[in-house]
């Protein structure tokens, strides 16, 4: 008898239920099929195809240069590697800010061409029309407040946001608005832990933090950072689970040495 074990897919409802019962949400980024397959089969709840692909995959200094076509390429590769996780795609810089019609068209392209389950975009009240129009097409939207890297040239630095009362109050207000507009979840990046906790307690949608402390409903890290592949990046919030920069380097050096010494391939490694 063959036992058919059905995989229970994570949905936006699953995340709401998790928040209600106090179960933390684990989210990681992915940009390609192979990594997505490993992460998905590890049991992560949400995979984010972040525009951090602009940094870690393409080597750009900021997230601004990545295009909608490039995000769709990464998104499709990740979706093909996932059978359980909810897959959310960042709307890249320039694909949603000009007007709500363009935002909707960008989100529709992502959903149609990649098979993803929803989109994420940065900002609060200023992107209200874009969020609402995307939602009218039945596309789930995740918000993103705090350090929003697409605005890096406005901020000037990647330091902690909303340390001053005025910015903290605006952030809390924006979080409430995003919930009212209909966002299904919210990412808070690099803000004081006490403020992030207050936001998570003030709204009913799940709040997922990166550098926002442990009082929120879940955590997200950039996979290449938590695996220690990006060894020159050391923010306080980053926990490294491996040092792949070093172990991959050692493997590459060993391979080079084996080729040069004619140790590879040996007799068993040829036809
Ligand atoms: O692009 C990204 O990877 C992100 C996460 C840091 C939340 O937006």
Task: List key phrases describing it.
271 residues; alpha/beta; 2 domains; 11 helices; 8 strands; globular; binds 3-methyl-2-oxobutanoic acid
CATH superfamily of the largest domain: Phosphoenolpyruvate-binding domains
The ligands bound in this entry are: 3-methyl-2-oxobutanoic acid
CATH hierarchy, class of the largest domain = Alpha Beta
Q: What composes the largest sheet?
A: 8 strands, parallel, barrel
**SSE pattern, N- to C-terminal:** HEHEHHEHEHEHHEHEEHH
Task: Explain briefly what this protein structure is.
This protein has helices at 12-21, 33-41, 53-56, 68-80, 100-114, 128-136, 152-155, 165-181, 193-202, 223-226, 244-260; strands at 25-29, 46-49, 86-90, 118-120, 141-146, 185-189, 207-210, 218-221. It is of the alpha/beta class and 271 residues long.
Topology:
Elements: H1 12-21, E1 25-29, H2 33-41, E2 46-49, H3 53-56, H4 68-80, E3 86-90, H5 100-114, E4 118-120, H6 128-136, E5 141-146, H7 152-155, H8 165-181, E6 185-189, H9 193-202, E7 207-210, E8 218-221, H10 223-226, H11 244-260
Parallel strand pairs: 1-2, 1-8, 2-3, 3-4, 4-5, 5-6, 6-7, 7-8
Bound molecules: 3-methyl-2-oxobutanoic acid.
3-methyl-2-oxobutanoic acid binds at residues 29, 48, 50-52, 90, 187, 189, 210, 220, 222.
Description:
With 271 residues, the chain is of the alpha/beta class. It folds into 2 domains: 12-240, Phosphoenolpyruvate-binding domains (TIM Barrel, Alpha-Beta Barrel), CATH 3.20.20; 243-271, no CATH class. It has helices at residues 12-21, 33-41, 53-56, 68-80, 100-114, 128-136, 152-155, 165-181, 193-202, 223-226, 244-260; strands at 25-29, 46-49, 86-90, 118-120, 141-146, 185-189, 207-210, 218-221. An 8-stranded parallel beta barrel has the order 1-2-3-4-5-6-7-8, surrounded by 7 helices. The chain is globular, with a radius of gyration of 20 Å. The model has no long low-confidence stretch (mean pLDDT 97). Bound molecules: 3-methyl-2-oxobutanoic acid.
